[in-house]
Design brief:
The complex is a heterodimer. By secondary structure, chain A is mainly alpha-helical. Chain A has twelve helices and two strands. Chain A has one domain (about 20-275). Helix content of chain B is about 30%, strand content about 25%.
């Protein structure tokens, strides 16, 4: 028996090692770090703008976002999610997703991964897992950035729920974390669309742009009243439902439906990515 | 995809690579046409052909990166690409140049590839990566980012990746591309060393000289077809051996050669040449001497691979690309 066969007999299945490598690659990449910093900076910018506005109009107490945040910094976490959910977060996920397969193909590293041999399904699962983690990190950074900025600029205190009852600080932060996770599920579903597109091309930029355009198109369709029959089936339709977590008691109908839609989109597009990738000729 | 009977099971365990009727078409271009490769275990197989003759596409099919339109191939008797997961850990490969993540160091890149192989033991990763880097003389630059590597260093890292495990088969696509003469010599030495350890080596090249120096077997590609394959010496004998005769009296020599029915005897300024055509050299010399022709020297000329190639294709090597 050859030495190589003996080595193979000692095989240790460790997909965790590949997943760690993938996360390291994603998080270690300067471009992604800058993107994350940008998501954070946007919330800080909004916080500063609200602070300036609050200083100009001291004492104004209305039901709007400005006064809510001015009264309690924790609200800025929710405000951050609201502001970035339509464009910036989907854009960030599109960058990650577009790069997933097309980036490796473009660099030529895809062929060496497959020769390792990584296994095509295993690679796709690891890439999808990294996109889910990336989505969670993105949403969490925006929420945490909001809280941090808000608390520094405006201080913290008990929140008033949308139903008018009072929520403790711990309760408010807990709900914000859940809101970020809910947003992340939607982003991850968009990530699966991007993963599928990424298997179609060797150009990561093309895949990123296409994914971002799909996200934007969904928002546009969701805003056209004549298409209201279509809205419940659009991926992004229930993304803003995370504010339901601020009701007392928590209103779950829209969130549960949203999770269902996100999961369905994610599953369908992951399956499409697999169908495309499993027999693809790797000529890069 | 089913395999033809002769490749089922391990009836031909002596073949590291076997293919039958391997065919691939990209769009309207027939890239590989009805290829029947047979690479014996333990051989150093030179896969030669001009640029664009289908070598790399063939290699991609052998390794399961590209699916053939028809035909089949097998590594160690196991069908590809179906058996890729089981067979590829035994195979190290350099395909169409090295490719790594530019912002990772050489070591980090190898670590990632090692993590990608589910049969790899992470406990031994550092030691294996270190010795692979040593083997290609890249240890000193191991911590540098890949983007800072020169072309030759990149090529070495690619070879190091193929050596992360002890392999039964190494597939090296143009391994000396971009290397300086010193590096080329080192790679040649490394290949010889690995072959001596029993690794089967399948090396593609468009450089005849390289193949001639390295290989025990040769397969010649042209326009997607395999013109010939076999042991190097056998290929050389495809070319009729010639001789070179030095004599002060070429005219008389030509007369004698004509009676011996040497088909293409010809005289130039300083020698008479011709094809041996089944005649033993001693018979020719004896006939010349018997006829009173002075013989200063008589040299049988073994054909070079290049001669053989020209004979095979009817033209030079690097003609059509």
């Amino acid at each position: 028996m050859s030495a190589a066969e003996k080595t193979r007999e000692r095989r240790v299945h460790r997909s965790g090692r590949l997943f760690a490598s993938e996360l390291g690659l994603m998080c270690g990449r300067r471009r992604n770090q800058v993107g994350l910093a940008t998501l954070f900076a946007l919330v800080v910018l909004v916080g500063v703008a609200l602070k300036v506005s609050a200083m100009r109009r001291p004492g104004s107490r209305g039901g709007d976002l400005v006064s809510a945040v001015a009264g309690n910094g924790i609200y800025l976490g929710f405000a951050g999610l609201t502001i970035e959910i339509a464009l910036f977060l989907p854009l960030a996920v599109s960058v990650l997703a577009g790069d997933a397969v097309a980036g490796e193909a473009n660099q030529g590293t895809l062929r060496y991964l497959l020769l390792a041999p990584v296994g095509r399904l295993r690679l796709l699962v690891v890439k999808a897992g990294a996109l889910i983690v990336g989505s969670v990190i993105g949403a969490m950074v925006v929420a945490a950035g909001g809280v941090l900025t808000g608390v520094v600029l405006f201080g913290a205190g008990p929140l008033i729920s949308l139903s008018g009852t009072q929520l403790s600080v711990a309760d408010g932060l807990w709900r914000l974390a859940l809101a970020a996770l809910y947003v992340a599920t939607g982003l991850a579903a968009l990530g699966m669309i991007g993963l599928f597109i990424s298997t179609l091309t060797e150009q990561p930029i093309a895949a990123t742009v296409a994914t971002a355009m799909v996200g934007t198109l969904l928002w546009v369709l969701d805003a056209v009243p004549q298409l209201d029959w279509l809205h419940p089936w659009l991926l992004v339709d229930r993304w803003p439902a995370f504010v339901d977590l601020l009701r007392e008691p928590v209103f779950l109908d829209r969130i549960v439906a949203g999770l269902g839609i996100n999961a369905a989109y994610g599953a369908v597009f992951f399956a499409l990515a697999w169908l495309r990738f499993r027999g693809k000729d790797i000529t890069s | 995809m089913s395999l033809p009977p002769e490749h089922e099971g391990s009836e031909q365990p002596e073949l590291a690579i076997a293919s039958t009727g391997l065919t691939k078409r990209f769009g309207r271009q027939q890239v590989v046409d009805d290829l029947a490769l047979a690479v014996p275990s333990g051989s150093v197989y030179g896969f030669i052909g001009p640029n664009g003759s289908g070598k790399t596409t063939t290699i991609r099919m052998l390794l399961g990166l590209v699916r053939p339109d028809s035909g089949s191939c097998a590594l160690f008797g196991k069908p590809m690409p179906q058996a890729a997961g089981g067979v590829l850990p035994r195979v190290g490969a350099l395909v169409e140049g090295p490719a790594f993540h530019p912002y990772l160091s050489g070591t980090a890149n190898l670590r990632r590839l090692d993590a990608a192989d589910p049969s790899s033991d992470s406990a031994t990763a550092s030691a294996r990566i270190g010795s692979a880097l040593d083997r290609v003389g890249l240890r000193a630059a191991a911590g540098k980012r890949y983007r800072a590597y020169s072309l030759g260093m990149r090529q070495r890292l690619g070879i190091a990746a193929a050596l992360l495990h002890p392999r039964d088969l190494l597939v090296l696509d143009e391994p000396t591309n971009g290397l300086d003469p010193q590096g080329t010599r080192e790679v040649r030495h490394l290949v010889a060393e690995l072959a001596a350890e029993g690794t089967t080596i399948f090396v593609s090249s468009h450089l005849l000289v390289e193949v001639e120096q390295l290989c025990s077997h040769v397969g010649v590609m042209r326009s997607g077809r395999l013109l010939t394959q076999g042991p190097l010496d056998e290929l050389r004998t495809l070319t009729a051996p010639r001789f070179r005769l030095q004599t002060p009296d070429p005219a008389a020599a030509l007369g004698v050669l004509a009676t011996l029915e040497v088909p293409d005897a010809a005289a130039d300024a300083d020698a008479v040449t011709g094809t041996l055509a089944g005649l033993e050299p001693e018979r020719i010399v004896a006939a010349l001497v018997a006829a009173g022709v002075a013989v200063r020297s008589f040299t049988p000329v073994t054909a070079t691979l290049e001669d053989a190639f020209v004979e095979l294709t009817g033209e030079g090597f690097d003609v059509s690309g």
